[in-house]
């Protein structure tokens, strides 16, 4: 089967991170990456639980922390957890992020994979006050050049810097116009580490292989992979997926690059 068919059989979280609850150490890395401070109003869109808000309040001393999620059960549980911690200056909203008022935000953590939501929210972010910082994971805001990258964490600051095309955006994210197997593996492994718990070692390894192939193939199609030939490790992983898992990825390569 083609890889698209295989991925459609998996829980969305395997590839997109949807419904994955980030671990506390990862949340701290993200908040340090964005230089969160006592002057900030922090929003976590699609927060799922209270942990990012609690860390932002307790460890970074933000003025206010707001979480938005459309799952009422999760919001109810998160409210109880924050109340049990006796924390103040927080708000939890059971809302659609597309409808939520985020006008007072200075820092936003936004991790969604739905293209329609991402595009609409990018338009919404562009109307926010100057110097508002938006953090995404793995995927950048469409059509925007990042202001800072510590992959898989990507930061865009308003007003956004526009990219001329996808190639320029990818080069800005990976910091090179020559992506080889080692680079693709390193960046894929960083992402796997971000969304995986210690219990998911096997899934993390498999995810790393898939994401490595996705990164390298995209780079090849954009003309920013190193060399003209497919590297032996990439060929090996393509062969392993096809032989042992009946997953085919070679069709993703442009015909004139394969």
Could you explain the architecture of this structure?
The chain has 258 residues and is α/β, with parallel strands linked by helices. It is 43% helix and 14% strand. It folds into two domains: 3-11 and 176-252, no CATH class; 16-173, Rossmann fold. The protein has a seven-stranded mixed β-sheet with strand order 3-2-1-4-5-8-7, sandwiched between helices. Helix 4 links the parallel strand 1 (41-45) and strand 2 (64-69). Helix 3 crosses helix 4 (51-58) and helix 8 packs across helix 9. The longest helix has 22 residues, at 201-222. It starts with a helix and ends in a 13-residue tail after the last helix.
Which spans of ≥5 residues are poorly predicted at pLDDT below 50?
Answer: 13-17
CATH architecture of the largest domain: 3-Layer(aba) Sandwich
Instruction: State the helix count.
Output: 10
**Number of β-strand runs:** 9
In terms of structural class, how would the helical and strand content be classed? alpha/beta
* Mean pLDDT score: 89
CATH topology of the largest domain: Rossmann fold
Please list the strands of the largest sheet in the order they lie side by side. Answer: 3-2-1-4-5-8-7
The name of the CATH superfamily of the largest domain reads Vaccinia Virus protein VP39
List the secondary-structure elements in sequence, H or E: HHHEHEHEEHEEEEEHHHH
Briefly characterize the structure:
By secondary structure, the chain is an alpha/beta fold. The protein contains 10 helices and 9 strands.
Which terms summarize this structure?
258 residues, alpha/beta, Rossmann fold, 2 domains, two-stranded antiparallel sheet, 10 helices, 9 strands, 43% helix
